[in-house]
Design goal:
Order of helices and strands: HHHHEEEHEHHEEHHHHEHEEEEEEEH
Shape: globular
Radius of gyration: 22 Å
Mean pLDDT: 84
CATH architecture of the largest domain: 3-Layer(aba) Sandwich
Oligomer: single chain
Strand content: 5-15%
Amino acid sequence: MTPTGSPEPSPLLSGSTCGHADHLLHRRRFLTGMAAAGAVSVSSWAGLFSVPAFAEQARKRAKRCILLWLCGAPSQFETWDPKPGRISGGPFGAIPTRLPGVQFGELMPRVASIADQLAVVRSMKTNQSEHLQGIDLLNRGAAPRPPFIRPTLGSVLAQQLGHLDSPIPNFVLLDPCPHGNEFREFKAGNWAGWLGAQYGPVRVGGEYRIEDVARQADLTADDHESRNALRRFLNRKFESERRSAAAASQNAVFERVKGLMSCAHLFDLERLPAKDRERYGPGTFAQHTLLARNLVENGAPFVMVANGMTWDSHVFHNEIYQMLVPELDRVIFHLINDLRERGLLNDTLVVMMGEFGRTPWMNQARGRDHYPNAWSLALAGCGIKRGVVVGETDPDGVDVVGQAFNERNLFATLFTALGIDPYAEYDLPNLPTFHRVEDRAEPIRAVLA
């Protein structure tokens, strides 16, 4: 897809590729699947996804991304960048990992045992210290440029890695507060920006299933399809006559409903083995991460797992982290191992971060406040070098030592790891120039495979 959402020439039809061998579908297998399916329109991706051979090949070879969004900003001191023995380190110690000389916080023993599967960046430095601005910055990869609204990472990856007619949503947001918390970014905001509503998220939360997607019992399948056909005709006529991009986006969103009806079972955790639910743990964040694993295993290109504002520890920081970090430790450990055992890790990029870090000092309420000056995140999987720790902070974690990385470097890294051109220009007629990553910011090359 181009940055505007218009179709690119398909490698299935033109022989071109996106630049990565994993995106190829063998021409002979494609034609075999088409022949077996009978009369299926080549122009209909919905038809193609109904071909078992095509759907299975697409599921196996596609690239995916899971973003574990630790909303509220987790502390680097109890996780990826401990400072044992320093006043900034707090009461928790550090433990060795599978990487010689590298330590993680003592509350993360499981993750320490798989450190050789991760890439940790300890030298993030950004310039927004409030939640709303920080969430916006780290989800969009650039500072605001009003009145233009840049698409979020999930929307860009939905466009670049997904197909609009795939039955499974291209951008899934798993959120314990599906109607949004106090921060506007997690309400019904404009996630997709200029890409259009078709690249916005399907938002699921609360119950671990999608409600109200079954066809009414007194409505036959033929009648249901006839109604949909009439709606499509009228909507496209309206869109064509008025040449409305907004109408086109709205029509694309309507097309999602049929897909959701066919894949709603993938969102039902009760269909997964009870032992898996027990391994991940009972919390909503844990269960949503297991659901994310199930969704990418079945073809979802991008799943964001948000956990509310629990990491925002302005009071009783140590007591809160004794509960939060062990859950995160367990969740990351099982997610990475499950993806690896299923043969999915090489094609699935896992990003673990919040909007900034926490202060090296405690406030009067025994909490850590917001701190964007020196913080950490972790990556794993697709396009990422395994078993590396990049960057460092000074002995008390007050500042980055040497080269620091910001949101632009991070987005260049994520796009590069997934085989997407980070510097492509958006085709926005009569608007200023925008790129996926501005100023040709360099990726964090030390973490790229």
